[in-house]
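Propose amino acids for all 143 sites.
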């Protein structure tokens, strides 16, 4: 596996089960995207930002775009790690990167980038990301 571009990524461990396996006998692409989303939420909670905290602010992040490159297959019984980190921040959008690896052999399973929009809970329209969230998810914190 190549080195991560940040020194302080969040690491979310994955134990691949039979339920993660698709008709082709390996982890399916939808599962990979789900893991990336779940890792992002786990990272958010680790920084003190759970669903109740977003509701208090009156908004939350939703995914606008997923980009995923698949590099190798993963199978039931594999132990994986999804590394994730904030990589960009604009007025109403945030970008996050992911790498899913198999630590046993250093194999890169997939890597991706998501664009998240921050929406007002009531109107569903994009709004400026609050200062508290900008501070928590500032990409400079993870370099």
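Proposal:
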């Amino acid at each position: 596996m190549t080195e991560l571009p940040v020194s302080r990524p969040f690491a979310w461990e994955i134990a691949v089960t039979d339920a993660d396996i698709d008709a082709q006998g390996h982890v399916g692409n939808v599962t990979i995207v789900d893991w990336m989303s779940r890792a992002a939420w786990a990272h958010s909670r680790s920084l003190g930002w759970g669903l109740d905290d977003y509701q208090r602010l009156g908004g939350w992040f939703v995914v606008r775009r997923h980009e995923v490159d698949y590099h190798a297959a993963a199978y039931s019984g594999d132990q994986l790690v999804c590394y994730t980190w904030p990589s960009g921040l604009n007025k109403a959008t945030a970008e996050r990167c992911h790498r899913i690896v198999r630590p046993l052999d250093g194999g890169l399973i997939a890597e991706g980038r998501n664009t998240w929009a921050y929406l007002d809970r009531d109107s569903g329209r994009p709004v400026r990301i609050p200062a508290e969230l900008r501070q928590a998810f500032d990409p400079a914190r993870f370099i």
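The mean pLDDT is 95. The two ends are 18 Å apart (CA to CA).
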